[in-house]
Each structure stands twice: as structure tokens, then as C-alpha cells.
Design brief:
Layout (H helix, E strand, L loop, with lengths): L9 H21 L10 E3 H7 L5 H17 L5 E5 L5 E6 L5 H71 L8 E2 H8 L9 H14 L3 E8 L2 E8 L15 E2 L6 E2 L5 E3 L5 E3 L1 H4 L7 H5 L31 E4 L17 E5 L9 H14 L5 E6 L8 E5 L2 H11 L2 E3 L2 E2 L1 E5 L1 H7 L14
Antiparallel strand pairs: 1-3, 2-3, 4-6, 5-6, 7-8, 9-10, 11-15, 12-14, 12-17, 13-14, 15-16
Helix pairs in contact: 1-3, 4-6
Length: 443
């Protein structure tokens, strides 16, 4: 540069010094000990706002004089910043902070760090506490459910024993049902009924949905209606509690149950021994059944009385209905009045052999057999291991006719059992059955 470019005209010296004092005063006012670093660069426009000059041209001339002084005195801590066109656009200020300010900043930094760490620790502790409380609540809930389940099964066993005893102790053809509320009041003390209400409801639900040996119905007891439980006496059971599979007998063309499970009741009708219900074998069961050790002869005069009058007279693989398993006049499993118009029939088919043709055949056989009743809907549960068929009749009277036609009947070598379902439960499982208006017709 030329030497005269680095000089300040004498007539402008005082005004340039005045501008420098104003800028230094403004920049010094920014210096303090804040928590964060102060602003370190200032644009030309910001500097223009700090001073008061008459015109922009006058400020520009004085600013150029100021730049000469700043370049010649870098120790002042104010450095010009130029752009790509070598035009000064900003001034960078180097703040000289005292030891006190530096110490204060360090203290602020440490306090801020500790505050942040305390927040993290608090959040982590709160989250851990909430997770621990949720885990304990879940654990207690599972333990409570397990206790209730154990209490439910224990109470269920007592109910079943009570119903079996009621059936065993009845006199002749007397009633063998018990009012549900009466069973509850006998098994649960008054002071425990409120606390055991959930357990008792679980027992009632289990019997209604999963216990096929007990039927729930409505009976009149001393002029009042009660929901009652009744043990199904004509349900053939195996010693381990399951249904007996049909098996060929020693007599050709017969299918019957194990003789250890059958006894003779009054009138010569076949029935279940209470001892056999508990899986025990009575020593006189075989004798009472009147079985012959050898097949009957072909001579009519020497033929013995048929010991299995209610067994199917066809083989297990033959199609269609094969007769009743017991006398219809002694069918104590049939309620006096049908409680609902929906029925659930078990053991109508073998789930391992079911196919589309069998489904059509089963529906056809049911409609033909129950032609005197109006059947609105039939559904077959193909995945059921018990061979379940659901039926909805037009009225409760029609359902009673269907019940009498199906319950205790042999169908393709299997003994069919039936129970009533509430209409609400049926519609919940089969919503489309609500809108059916016309009964099914025989094909």
C-alpha cells in the first residue's frame, strides 16, 4: 500500500478518536461474566447503530480511519473481518475475561452438569420404580388368578360329588336335581359368599360350558322357579370319565358298551351304576347285566333274553340312525320344559374323517329325523374332537322335539348326547342365524 493510505487526515483525527471511544465503550459494555459466551463479532450495521453521525458517508469515512488504527494496533483485541471482495463486513472482538469470570463459568458448567445428571438419575429411578410396581402387580395378579383357579376346581369337585350323591340317594324315580343357589349356600358359608362370588361364577360357567355330565335347566320347587343342576344318569361313561367308544360285541351285528359299566335298574332298563361313575368295578356288575358266556343259539326256543336291548342293531360303520340307547319313557335326561330353542349335540361324527359330503349327510339325516320340528339353523364344528353339531329351532317346543330325537340315540356307531344352549350364546357364536326366517327343508 501507499504510505498516505495508512494515514488519517488531521481534520478527521478528533472525530475518528471520538468514534473509537464510542465503539470501545459499547464493546466493553458487552463484556461480563454470563453463563454463556458473549457475542464476539459485530457487523458494520450494528456498529453504525452504536454511534450517531450525520450521514452514512461521514460514518464510512470515519470507519475507514478506524480500520487503519485497528490494523496498526492488533493488541486492542478488535480485528477486521473481510469478505471475498476484500470489503470489511464485521469486527471480531477478543474478550479478555478475568480469572473470576473463568472460575464463575466453570462453576456454572459443573452445576449444569450435575443438574442434568440429577435429572437423568431421577428419570431412571422413577422408571425403575414404576416397572417394579407393575411387575409386582402382575405377579400378584397371576398368583391371585392361580389361587382362584385352584379354589374353583376344588369347589367344582365338591359340587360334582354332591350331585352324584343326590342321584345315588334318590328313592325310586324321585327327583335328582338340586337348585344351583341351594348348592352354593350349602358349600360356601354366609360370611364367605361375597368374597367367593367370582370363584362361584367360574364354577357355574365351567359346568355350563365344559361339563357334559351335568345339565342346567329350570324347575319349579315349591311353586317357585329355580335354575337347577341334574346329573345325567343315562350318559355312558368310561372309568376315566370320558365317553365309551362303540366296540363290536361277541354277538354278530351288535355294538355296545363294556359290561363293567352297565347295571340293571328297576324294570330291566339299562343304566349307569354309581360305582362305575367313580371308576370302580362292582363285583356283581357282570352278573347283574345278565351276559351269556357264549353266543345265543339260532333256535328261538333256546335263545336267551337279549342283554343289550338298546344297543344299535347294525355295525359301527353302517350309516344313519341306529336306535335308542335307553327307553324313552325313562329318559331322565330330558327336561320337563325346554329352557331354550338352541341345542348342542355331541358325538355326531369322527373329526378325523369329516368332509364336505359327510357334513351334507349329517344335516340331511338330522332334518329328516326331526321332520316334526322346525329347525332354522344347523352348524357343524369340523375342528371339534367331540363331533359337535349346533342346532337352532324355531321355538322352545321345537327344540324339545329335536332334543328327544337326538339325545341318547346311536348314530353311525356313536352315542349322541345333547344339551341346551342359551339363544344369546348361540347368536354370539353364529350371528348369521339371527336373520333366518324359513326353516330347513328335507333334501
Amino acid at each position: 500500500r501507499r504510505s498516505f493510505d495508512l494515514c488519517i487526515p488531521g481534520q478527521q483525527m478528533n472525530r475518528t478518536a471520538d468514534l473509537l471511544r464510542k465503539l470501545l465503550a459499547a464493546l466493553k459494555a458487552e463484556e461480563s461474566c454470563p453463563n454463556s459466551a458473549p457475542q464476539s463479532t459485530y457487523s458494520v450495521q450494528e456498529l453504525r447503530n452504536y454511534v450517531s453521525t450525520n450521514t452514512d458517508a461521514e460514518f464510512s469515512q470515519l470507519f475507514q480511519n478506524l480500520l487503519i488504527l485497528l490494523r496498526q494496533n492488533p493488541g486492542w483485541g478488535i480485528l477486521p473481518v473481510s469478505d471475498q471482495q476484500q470489503q470489511v463486513t464485521e469486527l471480531s472482538v477478543v474478550h479478555h475475561r478475568s480469572l473470576y469470570c473463568r472460575f464463575t463459568s466453570l462453576v456454572y458448567f459443573i452445576l449444569g452438569f450435575l443438574y442434568d445428571m440429577a435429572n437423568y438419575v431421577f428419570v431412571f429411578t422413577a422408571a425403575s420404580l414404576v416397572c417394579g410396581l407393575l411387575w409386582q402387580a402382575w405377579k400378584r395378579y397371576k398368583e391371585k388368578k392361580h389361587r382362584e383357579e385352584q379354589e374353583m376346581y376344588a369347589l367344582l369337585d365338591r359340587v360334582l360329588i354332591m350331585l352324584q350323591n343326590k342321584h345315588s340317594d334318590r328313592e325310586g324315580s324321585g327327583q335328582s336335581f338340586l337348585a344351583i343357589v341351594h348348592v352354593r349356600d350349602q358349600l360356601i358359608p354366609p360370611q364367605d359368599r361375597a368374597g367367593k362370588d367370582r370363584v362361584w361364577k367360574s364354577v357355574v360357567k365351567y359346568i355350563r360350558e365344559k361339563e357334559s355330565r351335568v345339565r342346567e335347566e329350570v324347575q319349579h320347587i315349591r311353586g317357585e322357579e329355580f335354575r337347577v343342576w341334574q346329573w345325567l344318569t343315562d350318559m355312558p361313561l368310561s372309568p376315566n370319565g370320558g365317553p365309551i367308544a362303540a366296540s363290536p360285541s361277541k354277538y354278530p351285528g351288535r355294538v355296545h358298551h363294556s359290561p363293567a359299566m352297565i347295571t340293571r335298574g328297576p324294570g330291566g332298563a339299562a343304566g349307569l351304576s354309581p360305582v362305575s361313575l367313580l371308576g370302580q368295578r362292582s363285583p356283581n356288575v357282570t352278573a347283574s347285566a345278565g351276559l351269556s358266556k357264549s353266543p345265543p343259539t339260532t333256535k328261538p326256543a333256546e335263545a336267551k333274553k337279549d342283554p343289550w336291548p338298546f344297543a344299535p342293531t347294525t355295525t359301527a360303520g353302517s350309516p344313519g340312525w341306529q336306535g335308542s340307547a335307553f327307553q324313552l319313557t325313562r329318559n331322565v335326561s330330558a327336561p320337563v320344559l325346554p329352557p331354550t330353542n338352541c341345542i348342542k349335540a355331541r358325538y355326531m361324527f369322527d373329526h378325523r374323517q369329516i368332509n364336505s359330503d359327510m357334513i351334507v349327510a349329517i344335516k340331511k339325516d338330522i332334518v329328516l329325523r326331526c321332520s316334526d320340528a322346525k329347525i332354522m339353523h344347523i352348524a357343524i364344528d369340523r375342528d371339534s374332537k367331540e363331533g359337535i353339531v349346533y342346532l337352532k329351532a324355531c321355538t322352545a317346543d321345537d327344540a324339545g322335539k329335536v332334543f328327544n330325537k337326538l339325545h341318547g340315540q346311536w348314530y353311525k356307531g356313536q352315542l349322541v348326547t345333547a344339551k341346551y344352549l342359551t339363544e344369546d350364546r348361540y347368536h354370539h357364536r353364529f350371528p348369521d342365524s339371527k336373520n333366518i326366517q324359513s326353516p330347513l327343508k328335507p333334501l
